[in-house]
Design goal:
Elements (H helix, E strand, L loop, with lengths): L1 H11 L11 E2 L1 H10 L5 E7 L4 H11 L2 H10 E7 L6 E3 L2 E3 L1 E4 L2 E4 H6 L8 E5 L5 E6 L4 H12 L8 H7 L2
Helix pairs in contact: 4-6
C-alpha cells in the first residue's frame, strides 16, 4: 500500500516532504546547552503570548514549514517563551520576574529580550555565547523567515550588511 501511494504521488507530481518537528526547549535548557555542549548552536527565542493570533499563525504557517523546521533544528536551540509567564528566571545572577500590570502583565526577561518593545510575535536571535544578535518583530512567512534565520544562522551578519544581503538573497 505504501509503495502504491509513493507511485501515485510520483505520477501526480506531488512532492512528499517528511514533516520536521521543532524541538522546543525552555530558556534554562538552551542556556545550559550553550554552556555544556562542545560545539554549541545559536539560540532562537520565539516570544509569544497565549492571546496573540499572529503568534499562533506563525506557529502553524512558519514553524511547521518543513524547510524552516529542518534549518532551525540544525542551527539553533529553539526556545518558546511566554511573555506573560509567571515563573521567575535567574540568568547571569539577575532574577527576572512577572510584573503585574492591570489585568495582565509581562515577564521581565521578555521585556529585556525585546529591548522594552513588547510586541508579539517577536523572535530573538542570540549567538552561541548568549550575545543578543537581534530581535525581529512581527509575523514572518516561511520564505521571509528563512532569509532572516540564514542571515544569523550562517554567520552572514558578521561580514555582510543586512541591506546588501536582502538585495542579493535568492
Amino acid at each position: 500500500m505504501r509503495n502504491a501511494l509513493i507511485i501515485l504521488f510520483f505520477i501526480l507530481g506531488i512532492q512528499f516532504i517528511p514533516a520536521q518537528e521543532i524541538e522546543w526547549m525552555t530558556w534554562e535548557e538552551a542556556i545550559a546547552k550553550t554552556e555544556k555542549d562542545k560545539d554549541p548552536k545559536k539560540i532562537f527565542i520565539d516570544v509569544y503570548t497565549d492571546w496573540c493570533g499572529w503568534c499562533k499563525r506563525m506557529d502553524k504557517d512558519t514553524f511547521n514549514n518543513p524547510e524552516v523546521a529542518a534549518y532551525m533544528k540544525e542551527n539553533f536551540y529553539m526556545v518558546k517563551f511566554d511573555a506573560e509567564s509567571k515563573e521567575p528566571i535567574t540568568y547571569r545572577d539577575q532574577e527576572f520576574k512577572f510584573v503585574s500590570q492591570g489585568r495582565s502583565g509581562y515577564h521581565e526577561l521578555a521585556a529585556a529580550l525585546l529591548q522594552g518593545r513588547l510586541s508579539f510575535p517577536t523572535v530573538v536571535f542570540m549567538s552561541e555565547k548568549q550575545e543578543m544578535l537581534s530581535p525581529v518583530p512581527g509575523y514572518q512567512k516561511p520564505k521571509e523567515f528563512l532569509m532572516i534565520a540564514r542571515y544569523f544562522g550562517d554567520d552572514l551578519y558578521k561580514t555582510t550588511q543586512w541591506d546588501e544581503y536582502e538585495k542579493n538573497y535568492q
